Amino acid sequence: MFLILLALCVLAVSAAGLGLLAFARPTPATTRLADLFGPLGAACGCALGMAGLFTDSWTGSLLWTQAWGLPVGGLSLGLDALSRVFLLPVFGLGFVCACAGGISLRHTRASEHNLAAHWLFYLLLVLGMAVVMMARDAVLFLLARRLFNQRLRYISLMNDYFPLFLILGVVLSGICMRYFDKTDIAQVKVFIMGLVHFSPVAPDGISPLFFMHLAFVSVLLLYFPFSKLMHMPGVFFSPTRNLPTNTREVRHVNPWNPPKQYFTYAEYEDVYRDAMAEAGLPLEKQPSSKAAE
């Protein structure tokens, strides 16, 4: 748990430093600093996070709570097997994207982009996703944010609510199995090992809540690669990051575009010249009747 908290601190400190650079006027010096500390802070934070995931046992559950000055509640971060599974792509892809971004942005000039602002928002993205995966009651916060924020509710679609309901189903079914309807862990192990070895065993004494919980987890894992949760790998497919910025010097033509029949303005005027003359629109060539007069 210590390495995970250290990773969050590294990401937060790096984001704070880049935030100060982002509000300063972009100069070659600030661009070099952002190009150094942006990918370095993101890569180090994600590497510490990956190390923290594999140094502790995946079977246990860790909890860190810090009281704060708000009227209710406190800051509570937990680490269990499920949160570790979802933290793996956050820290793993975060590390890869930080390295790829550092390589692709190393020649950026101060006059082109505010590089500190780019790295600031990337670090906040990784830090926010990691905290959401570890925070207790984070799902209710995200759901309430979409329901009570008028602007966000207006643009929210079903594919924004669907992963939240899946995660909420996983959490609620897990809480019910933990505190209300106990499940025979030994029989669950026999059932799962039978599925792993492709020799399924008929479940005996397993609560129906377990199968509901397993269904929610399976659907969430299947839906994850095709959902908005996979935003970070988009850096590999972004044309502004992977193609040369020479559109002023070279005209790029898509070779897959089919041939098109273009309609020039001269041809358009030939077709609609009389109607345009009646409407009083300016013409490059007058109608034949007016030209004869």
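the 2nd protein, sequnce then structure:
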Amino acid sequence: MTDQPTEPNVSAVRDAARPPVADRAAFQTELDRLRAREKAHTREGDAIAAARRRLPMVEVAAYGSTPSWPVSVVTSAADRLPPCLR
């Protein structure tokens, strides 16, 4: 058997999770770089949402058909609404 403990060194694990200590200028540089990435991410998401809104629309028929009879979309949706919203 070895003399090494089976449990990891808690201090080493805790220290590995901490970010390095830096001066204010280095912090500000990294913060500015991160903000630029965040803004680019937000703009890309906005562009995707705008493209989704520009998609062509498809007309939906007011009546759907069931094996027995035609059913109004409004009627079939109203059956699932809670009583206070009918």
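Strands lie at 63-65, 70-72. Residues 24-53 form the longest helix (30 residues).
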